[in-house]
Design goal:
single chain, alpha/beta, YbaK protein, two-stranded antiparallel ribbon, 10 strands, globular
């Protein structure tokens, strides 16, 4: 269902994209290898709580959220990586850990690590562990209107 919801949204906006099917994979690194994509090219969605508000942090698959950098960028008192149990209900129909980075479809703010803005395209999970979507980063930014900051580290 989430894959169809995302496709309907993109089609409705007239955005060009490519759907990429791959073998079953769970971690961002496994997905990148399965789809023959470099880890930096694959964006992962990490659910964080910024002062207890669920928020999407989108960063390269081979990086980690640096809570201190995100805290400073967001101007909040507390940053906490949410547990799967805490956020699973927020993404009905999505495979756990495969949420697409479209907070606007889930009433959620989105922060994008500045390093992703340097790429022409963004590739991300489409709600399942077997399908990715690739589209231009500029289109993604127009659709999602994320906040951009440096908040990741290797």
């Amino acid at each position: 269902m989430p894959v169809e919801k995302l496709r309907d949204f993109l089609d409705g906006k007239g955005v060009k994209y490519i759907a990429v099917s791959h073998s079953l994979a769970y971690t961002a690194q496994e997905i990148a290898a399965s789809a023959h994509i470099h880890g930096k090219q694959l964006a992962k969605t990490v659910i964080v709580q910024l002062d207890k508000r669920f928020t999407m942090a989108v960063l390269p698959a081979n990086y980690r959220v640096d809570s201190q950098k995100l805290k400073a960028a967001a101007g909040v008192k507390e940053v906490k990586i949410a547990s799967e149990d805490e956020f699973v209900r927020l993404f009905p129909g999505c495979a756990l850990g495969a949420m697409p980075p479209f907070g606007n479809l889930y009433d959620m703010d989105v922060w994008v690590d500045r390093s992703l803005t340097e790429d022409e395209e963004i590739v991300f999970n489409a709600g399942s562990h077997t399908e990715l979507v690739k589209l231009s980063y500029k289109d993604y930014e127009k659709l999602v209107n994320p906040r951009i900051a440096e908040f990741s580290s290797l």
